[in-house]
Amino acid sequence: CVCVCVCVRVHLCLLRSGRISSDAKLFKAESALVPSLTRFIRLCLFFVQMKLWNKYKVTSIPSLVFIDAATGKVVCRNGLLVVRDDPKGLEFPWGPKPFAEVVAGPLLRNNRQTTDSSTLEGSYVGVYFSAHWCPPCRSLTRVLVESYRKVKESGHKFEIVFVSADRSEDSFTQYFSEMPWLAVPYTDEARRSRLNRLYGIQGIPTLILLDTEGHMITRQGRVEVLNDPECRLFPWHPRPVLELSESNAVQLHEGPCLVLFVDAEEEGELEPAKELIQPIAEKIMAKYKAKDEETPLLFFVAGEDDMSDSLRDYTNLPEAAPLLTILDMSARAKYVKDVEEITPAVVEQFVSDFLAEKLKPEPI
């Protein structure tokens, strides 16, 4: 796109300076190129836009993301809240702060008693962004109450902090009465806003899981709770490869996803497929974790069920199995590797080519 912009600028400069022929026919021919060039520029800008949406996990607009120009790392995902809460820039450069510092202060229980946030030290913590007016939130809360009790009963030090997005204090009070955990006071709007900024919350319900040091384990607490009702996998560290299901399909919209479709109908038949791609997934996760960056690709295996059929239909994929794909829903693009045998080498090369932008996308 830089080259294109340079070419357009040179073309316009030449026109202004009179260095392009004044012959009417030649000028007309040159001018005819402008619409094509304009379309090409728009296409380039579209792809740049999609890459930025994916890179910064943008799911809604308007959205303002602050980055460190020296490192390219995200400083703050919720820039709109920064502008609202700190219009004079007193907290500039708005870098991330430790959870303990941001949450510091009194926390409520639903019996109106308070406890200091320092009691969270040494515990696993779930930071729960939710609201009573949101039906998916209420559904998740019912499940989360049971999960919370099971984890506590198993002996783990675990606490949840509710950060309300309710529209009134009465709604907050009614909703919080159903919860056995802690909450940031509804009247403390500044602290609720800072927690939203800290984790770049763009939608609810969102459940952030933190380890005993306050470091993030996963942003996908909602998916983990729904997929593991018995809480056997607590504290729900990210798994390199997921089995596609209705509860985790929402992650397909959060960025590019590799999906390996296989001929498997019974439980357990997906294990060989998971074992095939797991080493590659682990390698990618470790590489980007070392750079303190989010993994650019999620990994799924999918068998033969309604969820897989719906995904194939929606993305217009062939019925072949095995079928190796990378789906980028936000860019409405897919990459397909339809070969008779899928080996670790085939998967690794496919992933490498995708990350190097060597693959040609097909539209979804």
Question: Could you characterize the architecture of this molecule?
Answer:
The protein has 364 residues and is α/β, with parallel strands linked by helices. Helix content is 40%, strand content 16%. The chain has helices at residues 2-17, 24-55, 79-85, 99-103, 135-153, 169-176, 189-199, 221-227, 271-290, 306-315, 344-355; strands at residues 66-67, 74-76, 106-108, 114-116, 124-130, 158-164, 182-183, 206-210, 216-218, 242-243, 257-261, 298-302, 323-328, 333-337, 362-363. The protein has a 6-stranded mixed sheet with strand order 10-12-11-13-14-15, sandwiched between helices. The chain has a 5-stranded mixed sheet with strand order 7-6-5-8-9, with helices on both faces. α3 (79-85) packs antiparallel against α7 (189-199). The longest helix is centred in the first third of the chain and has 32 residues, at 24-55. Mean pLDDT is 87; it is low at 1-22.
Question: Which terms would index this structure?
Answer:
six-stranded mixed sheet, 16% strand, alpha/beta, five-stranded mixed sheet, 364 residues, 11 helices, globular
Overall mean confidence score, pLDDT: 87
Strand content: 15-25%
- The oligomerization state is single chain
Structural class by SSE content: alpha/beta
Determine the fraction of residues in helical runs and give it as a percent range: 40-55%
C-alpha geometry: globular
How many beta-strand elements?
A: 15
| Cα-based radius of gyration, to the nearest Å | 25 Å
How are the strands ordered across the major sheet? 10-12-11-13-14-15
Low-confidence stretches: 1-22
Distance between the termini: 24 Å
Biggest sheet record? 6 strands, mixed
List the total number of helices.
Answer: 11
Order of helices and strands: HHEEHHEEEHEHEHEEHEEHEHEEHE
